[in-house]
Amino acid sequence: MTRPLEARISASALAHNLAAAKRHAPGARVMAVIKANGYGHGLLRVARALMAADGFAVLTVDEAIALRTHGVTQPILLLEGLFSDPELAAARAHALALVVHSPGQVEALETCGPGAALDVFCKINSGMNRLGFRPEALPGVVERLRGAAAVEHITLMTHFACADEAGGIDVPLGQFWRAAAAYRMPHSLANSAALMSDARTHGDWVRPGIMLYGVSPFAGRTGSELGLRAAMTLVSRVIAIQSVRAGDRVGYGGSFEAPHPMRLGIVACGYADGYPRHSGTGAPVLVDGRRTQLIGRVSMDMLCVDLTALPSAGVGSAVTLWGDGLPVEVVAAAAGTIGYELLCALAPRVSVVDVS
Ligand SMILES: *Cc1c(COP(=O)(O)O)cnc(C)c1O
Fold this sequence. Notes:
This protein is an alpha/beta fold. About 25% of the residues lie in helices and about 25% in strands. It has helices at about 10-25, 35-40, 45-50, 60-70, 85-95, 105-110, 140-145, 170-180, 190-195, 330-335, 340-345; strands at about 5-10, 30-35, 55-60, 75-80, 95-100, 120-125, 150-155, 185-190, 205, 230-245, 250, 255, 260-265, 285, 290-295, 305, 320, 350-355. α1 packs across α3 and α6 (about 105-110) packs parallel to α7. It is elongated. The two termini are about 25 Å apart. The site of pyridoxal-5'-phosphate has 11 residues, from loops.
């Protein structure tokens, strides 16, 4: 028998969530964000399931070339633009769109040799202070981009630091428009949280990521509460049973001490698969569709669950680590992180199975 751990990826869930994004932002074009290997779901698999998207956003030239090689004809945006000047030739050859966030990137577009002109997304720093030009610098940057032979169309963009919080958009939106209002240029503002919470951010292109995978961008709410469907379900099985007495300790470090006699299931999934080691006793797990809890420390290849209240469970019982029936947001919260991190951290050794 092969190891029973697998990540089931649902193409219909991805398509459903894209349709939800389009319903939320009916006037905008949807740039599906599929960086980080499609948030752990597989770059090409996700692109195929989301072929109805109007464009795709990735991080690297290599990801973009893989998409072009597999027949993607929509615009592809490099979210941090070029990391070095030699990448410009590949961007031209594959008609990639570039974020431009730094003076060096503007200069590269001004000084490069003749060749195809590219669409650029000029990034304004609206208060996140990560990438982008300060609003007051925009006039100079736009003038230079307009004069650069390697630039075709300019779209103005920003990225919100707090779009998932009530009122978190007002100030950065004001910052953006103070700079952008002078230009009749297309704009792109919304991540998933802004897309679902504030129509003022929809503009010409929306950039949903996490919602496409069925996961909520808002703390305390799950994707299914927002009408989304989990695209990834991580499943495994119980491979061994242990009966322990009161006072026995469980797992590395003996950090869990059984307060009473317990029946434990050992599950084939560990931190080398991407299950968060920071999780611990009490984190939710489904066994045979019923909710129980993690016990003790997560090992590299295994973890332990409480089967005391599930007498019919045994070796071979089905386990859901997250996904359909157990939102990854809830599992992530128990580990002190967010669903994004768990999905992206799915290890390459986990078998991926396509399901409808
Ligand atoms: C990752 C990313 C997104 C998508 O964000 P979600 O919260 O996953 O919807 C949008 N825009 C930019 C610039 C990003 O880097």
